[in-house]
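## Example record

The block below lists the input lines for one assembly entry, exactly as stored, with component labels intact.
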Amino acid sequence: MSADANASREERFSDARLAEIAEVVKRYPGAQSALMPVLYMAQEDFGYISMDAQKMIAGVLGLRLMQVREVVTFYTMFREQPTGKYLLEVCTNAGCMLNGANELVAHMCETLGIKQGETTPDGLFTIAEVECAGACAGAPVVQVNNTYHEKVTAADMDALITKVRDGAIQ
Amino acid sequence: MTISSDPKQVKQICFDNINVPDMNTLAVAREHGAYAFLPTVLKEFSSSKIIDEMKTSGLRGRGGAGFPTGLKWSFVPRNTGKPTYLLCNADEGEPGTFKDRDIMRFDPHLLIEGMIMAGFALGVKDAYIYIRGEFLHESNVMNAAIQEAYAANLLGENILGSEFSMNLVVHRGAGAYICGEETALIESLEGKAGRPRFKPPFPAVEGFYGCPTVVNNVETLASVPAILEYGGAWHAAIGIPNNTGCKIFSVSGHVNKPGNYEVPMGTTMRVLIEDYCGGLQHGTVPKVIIPGGSSTPWLTAEHYDVPLTYDDIMKAGSFLGSGAVIVMDETADLMALTRRLAHFSAHESCGQCTPCREGTGWLERVITRVENGQGTQDDVTVLGDAARHMAGRTICALAEGAAAPVLSLLKHFPEDVQAYLGENA
Ligand SMILES: Cc1cc2nc3c(=O)[nH]c(=O)nc-3n(C[C@H](O)[C@H](O)[C@H](O)COP(=O)(O)O)c2cc1C
Ligand code: SF4
Ligand code: FES
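Predicted structure tokens for the full assembly:
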């Protein structure tokens, strides 16, 4: 638990979380297997996984910081930086590309005035091109904060963006 | 259950109840026969009887490699003093593949039942479903179904009053295609970066935490309940010898009705595309058909009547793979597609083998140059040489899969490549 001292106040797991982690660890032959589930918890609680959070997690699971860093940096779904409130992940792999994904990304970039990989200055939207989402029958596929939207049109994206900007959805 | 190749009459193995509303709940699943045969298996079947039925069935792994499932199970050493683990591969990352998702979100109890039966045959105490991180909804559905199964004593201690106890845990990946490779999956489940291991030792002998481990695909495990209930011989009579049973094909690209279709093995590509998928968006004959996911070599119009079997597709020069059929009509820009797939491979290479790490980057850079009109004839030569040098020199098959689209483009569509060279030709 020594790394705990380095964790900033807001990047501490709650007691309820720590109890949950103790349960998760029991599901595996070794505590290191709980690392990915715990990283997801950190991302859910703190928005992204800062270096402080990584040190704190290493302490909680009894791992070296390097073991945590290796995993955080290997997997694309673990983020070390904050994203916009709405993370718009557009699949541009084969099935989606053949059904207009590139045109959709271009339209979204133009509407939001950013490039893929960037976040709007108001912090609301991030656009990211991602690999095949495993839902190619619904091409083109856009994940909005991990919820799948299939057969998405430019008009669908415009409607979502307008609703968010008007405060119609949180 | 009988199987016909007429789309209206096909009776299916994994998709029999896929359209039943609320099939994800235990009550509805039970109304449709879920777990009905499980007590018989737990009471009357021995481990060797189950493995024999699986061998007789001829079922080949549905995750990509097509290795016979019964044989794989028979390789697991017994009485080693170590636990044996069962890992369900639900990583489903191969571009074009989207079948396991439907089994998990619509009929999770079928997978659970298959895993209980497999776990019973192999003497497993702890089983895991490694599901790709993007499938958050599917992992929630699986978890809810698992909770219901525990509450009904279908999982946990002394299942249905038998001596057999098994736990089942869903573990989410986090966006790395390579974790679908079975040894990378094991590394990942151990809480590490997903870098494939050298084989041998094979997972059956030394896998998860150094213990005997069976890794099977979702569709493979979901096929087990029907095989044990109706018998291995029943399954072997569907399809054709060495290519038995039904297979789910995930069809995407330029077809009118993309989707998952479970058809008897041996159904032709033309029937799949025309009768099931409503034909092409433009024209009548596909320009390119990728038969087994984006890492498999391309087939062309001349293979339109190929029967969908492991053996026939191999004879045609490709692989059945995971059954992900990506169809392109004459409007497809093959150079752009090849560049996109090269980007995928470069992005997903785990980096530990030089031919793969360097080769995938080279391919992406050179194809991008050609696509942008700055390519030369030398670049085309480099592409072919680089791609040919990647296969067979690496720890896992990702490198070979990365080379496949490039070699296919050069082989079947040299004129499409020349068109991009323009005055540099
Ligand atoms: C790069 C790569 C990616 C793979 N991805 C998957 C996958 O997403 N799902 C899967 O079931 N098998 C995948 N496989 C195949 C697995 O290594 C393994 O053969 C399979 O899970 C075994 O299950 P089966 O015998 O039931 O097919 C992949 C293989 C490679 C080389
Ligand atoms: S072939 Fe590529 S993905 Fe596979 S182990 Fe080697 S570097 Fe990693
Ligand atoms: S190609 Fe986009 S979901 Fe598969």
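The first strand of chain A starts at residue 86 and ends at 91. The interface with chain B takes residues 27-37, 39-40, 63, 67, 70-71, 74-78, 92-95, 97-99, 130-137, 139, 143, 146-148 of chain A (CB under 8 Å).
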